[in-house]
Amino acid sequence: MTTTINANSHKSLIRNKVWSRLRAVALPDSRFHHDYSSFIADFEGSSAATDLLQSLPAYQNAHLIFIAPDNCLQELRYRSLTDGKKVIVTTYGIRRGFWILDPEQIHESQWQMASVLDGMENIGRHMTLADISELPTDIALMVTGTGAINLKGLRFGKGHGYFDLEWAMLYSIGKANQRTQTIAVVHECQVLDEELRGEVWDTGCDFVVTNDKVINVKDASKPSCGILWDKLEDGMLEDIEPLKELEAIKKRSRAG
Q1: Distant-in-sequence, close-in-space partners of 12: CB < 8 Å, separation ≥ 6
Q2: Per its UniProt record, what PANTHER family does this chain match (predicted)?
Q3: 3-state secondary structure at position 100
C-alpha cells in the first residue's frame, strides 16, 4: 500500500511539473480551458508530430488503428481517414463506448467533421465490443496523447487510466495483443527523464512522437491482465458502457 501511495504521489508531482510547462505551448479547450486534469491538450507543433508519426512503418502498415479521443490527435484522425485507414475511437471518458470511422463508408466531404468528437457520433458507427471482436483484422496500432511520459514509454496521464482501460478491453476480446504497437503523441516539454515503477496495468508506448523527434522505446510494457475489476475508480462500471458489456460476458461465462 505504501509503495502504491508513493508512486501515485510521485506521478502527481510529475503531472503538476509538466502542466506548468505545458501551459506555454498548449491550446486551451473550449470546455476546460487549461485544466489538464480534465483533458489531454493539443499543442503548438502537433502537426509536425503527426508528420513524424505518419512516417513510421508502424503507421504505414496499419489498416485498423485505435486513436484516443485526445485533442492533440484530431488531425491524426483526419489524416488516417485520408490515408484510407479505418479508425476506432472512444467517446470522451469511454462513456458511450467505441465508434468506428471507415473512409469507405463515410463520404470524403465528411472526413474532417468525423475526426472531431462532436461529429464522430453523428457520422461514424457505434461498435460494441462484440462488434469489434468480429472485425476481420486485429488492431495493429494504438495511439494516445498523455499528460507526461518518460523515456521508457511510461505515461502519466490525467490519472484516470482511460488508455489502460481501452487497451485492457481490446486485449480481453482478442483485438489487441503483444504485437499491437503503441504510440504517444506529446510536446517536447512533456517528455521527462524520470524513473518510476509502473503498475501491472500500465500500458507502455513503443514510440514517443514529439513535435521534434521520434523516440524508440525498447521492451515497452504490454499488459496481459485484462480488466482488474477491483482497481476501477468508483462509478466507472456504471458509467462506461463497454465495461458493463464485459461484465455481462463474464457473468454469462461463469453461469455456463
Answers
A1: 159
A2: 5-FORMYLTETRAHYDROFOLATE CYCLO-LIGASE-RELATED, METHENYLTETRAHYDROFOLATE SYNTHASE DOMAIN-CONTAINING PROTEIN
A3: strand
The torsion angle over the Cα atoms of residues 173, 119, 96 and 252, rounded to 10 degrees, is -40
Looking at residue 144, which CATH number applies to its domain? Answer: 3.40.50.10420
Question: Which pLDDT tens digit goes with each residue over 176-213?
Answer: 999 999 999 999 999 998 887 778 889 999 999 999 99
Tell me the residue range of the domain where 168 lies.
Answer: 2-255
Domain count for the chain, please give it: 1
What is the rounded end-to-end Cα distance, in angstroms, of the chain? Answer: 36
Q: What is the per-residue pLDDT across 65-113, written as a single tens digit (0 to 9) for each?
A: 999 999 999 999 999 999 999 999 999 899 999 999 999 999 999 999 9
Instruction: Round to whole Å and give the CA distance between 100 and 111.
Output: 12
Nearest to 241 by CA among 153, 128, 161, 152: 128
pTM of the predicted protein model: 0.93
